[in-house]
Design brief:
mainly alpha
C-alpha cells in the first residue's frame, strides 16, 4: 500500500523487492548467498560472538517453553557448545 503522496513505503519496497528476487532466482542461489554470508560472518566474528548469540537464542527459547524438563540439553547450553565448535 502506498501512502498519500504516492511514495512507496520501505516495507512495501522491501516486500516487492523480495518477491521479485524470489521469482528470478532458484533455491541454489539462496543457498549460495547464505553460504557466503555465513563465511563472511565467521571471518569477522570470534567465538564469543557465537556464544553470545547462542545464549540469547537459548534464553528466548527457554522463555517460550512450558517449563517441562525432559532431560535434554537446554537450548542455551546447546548454543554455547555450538559457539565453541563454530570457530575453525
Amino acid at each position: 500500500m502506498t501512502n498519500n503522496n504516492e511514495k512507496m513505503s520501505r516495507e512495501e519496497a522491501g516486500r516487492k523487492g523480495g518477491e521479485a528476487t524470489a521469482k528470478n532466482h532458484d533455491k541454489e542461489f539462496f543457498q549460495e548467498i547464505g553460504q557466503k554470508g555465513g563465511e563472511a560472518t565467521s571471518e569477522n566474528h570470534d567465538k564469543e560472538f557465537y556464544q553470545e548469540i547462542g545464549q540469547k537464542g537459548g534464553e528466548a527459547r527457554a522463555n517460550q517453553r512450558d517449563g517441562s524438563d525432559d532431560g535434554k540439553m537446554s537450548r542455551e547450553e546447546a548454543g554455547l557448545n555450538g559457539g565453541e565448535k563454530s570457530r575453525r
